[in-house]
Specification:
14 helices; alpha/beta; single chain; three-stranded mixed beta sheet
């Protein structure tokens, strides 16, 4: 699954992408639209649980979970009408599963702001307005098609007309589709099939100056974003310093940890953002350990044990017998596998078991 990095030009999107991917793949420059074609990078999901399991199992290799990030060109007011790289920008967003909205929360006269001043709430409004306007245009086209089919008593079309007829006035109030009150799971599926830009889950990445990291509470721009999101959006917030994170990406992990420690910062903002995005995409990890490898396997929240076994090998699902499961926290508390078994922390789960994030599992299959 992919998360798209969006925002106005010159807010630090490409610098953040480089930090996330620990590369210089994306051009970062002090002028609008330095990114035109989207950059795609595979990013490791930080997971300290793998380190602990590796100390216990001493495997040949460690395999973390990964997700993809897409660096999308900056958007400007009027994008829904084709301004700037509007049409291209909007089509790129349509292809991702979630959105990381980078908001500039630092002052620097040497870095041009396309609006001439720093106002993160205004900037959020510009982009969200363009997404909503594009959605309204899309729905107006779609409802015409559905209305024609509805005249022939097509039940699916009738339901679509009802949904769209309620959605358009909702969006016209400036509210994004991901806040729209859904009647039931069937309507949720119908909404998903409309492929609306503003229906995608969002996390706001507040890009701050390096000097603000030790005291984020003192940054008035971050405070403004927190207030706006709490009142108007059902979304999370992460605080990052793109420039610093890009520099950390050029260091070894040990050097980066030591550097952050000297700054009085507990962890990388990028690490928090990656984990938050993984969660935003509706993903979680179950874990396996052994002498060959310790590994985090990605699954969608709500998946049951047989479907999760298919993540390892497709044949496992049809030949599933049981899943031997221990919670990671219980395994740590016990200290090792043998002690966890002795304490009865391992349990056998059947086909209806819903896998939990951090489950350490061995699948029993008939093959």
């Amino acid at each position: 699954m992919q998360a798209g990095i969006i925002g106005l030009p010159n807010v630090g999107k490409s610098t953040l992408f480089n930090a996330l991917t620990r590369t210089r793949k994306a051009e970062a420059a002090n002028y609008p639209f330095c990114t035109i074609e989207p950059n795609v990078g595979v990013v490791v999901v930080p997971d300290g649980r793998l380190d602990w399991l590796a100390k216990m199992a001493r495997p040949e290799k460690i395999v973390p979970a990964v997700i993809e990030f897409v660096d999308i060109a900056g958007l400007v007011a009027g994008a829904s009408k084709g301004e700037g790289l509007g049409n291209k920008f909007l089509s790129n967003i349509r292809e991702v599963d979630a959105v990381v909205h980078v908001v500039r929360c630092f002052e620097n006269e040497d870095i041009v702001h396309t609006c001439g001043s720093i106002d993160p709430v205004r900037d959020i409004g510009i982009i969200e307005t363009e997404l909503i306007l594009a959605d309204i245009q899309s729905l107006e086209r779609q409802i015409e098609t559905s209305q024609r089919k509805a005249k022939g008593q097509d039940k699916d079309a009738i339901a679509s007309v009802d949904l769209i007829s309620r959605l358009i006035p909702f969006l016209n109030e400036g509210k994004s589709a991901n806040l729209f009150p859904i009647k039931d799971d069937e309507e949720r599926k119908r909404l998903d099939h409309l492929f609306l830009l503003s229906s995608k889950p969002v996390i706001y990445a507040c890009n701050v100056a390096e000097g603000d990291l030790a005291d984020i509470g003192g940054n008035k721009f971050v405070a403004a974003v927190r207030g706006y999101v709490a009142q108007h959006r059902n979304s999370g917030i992460a605080v990052i310093c793109s420039k610093l994170e890009e520099e950390l990406g050029e260091m070894s992990l040990d050097e980066a940890r030591e550097f952050l420690k000297e700054m009085g910062v507990a962890d990388s903002g990028v690490s928090d953002l990656i984990r938050a995005t993984y969660d935003l995409l509706g993903l979680a990890s179950f874990l396996t350990e052994g002498p060959k490898e310790v590994r985090a396997w990605t699954f969608h929240k709500g998946m049951k044990a047989p479907a999760c076994s298919a993540v390892i090998h497709t044949d496992f699902e049809k030949n599933f017998i049981k899943a031997e499961v221990v919670a990671y926290t219980d395994l740590v508390a016990a200290g090792n596998v043998a002690k966890a078994r002795e304490l009865g922390k391992y349990r056998m789960e059947g086909k209806e078991y819903e896998m939990k994030d951090g489950d350490v599992v061995v699948f029993r299959v008939n093959c």
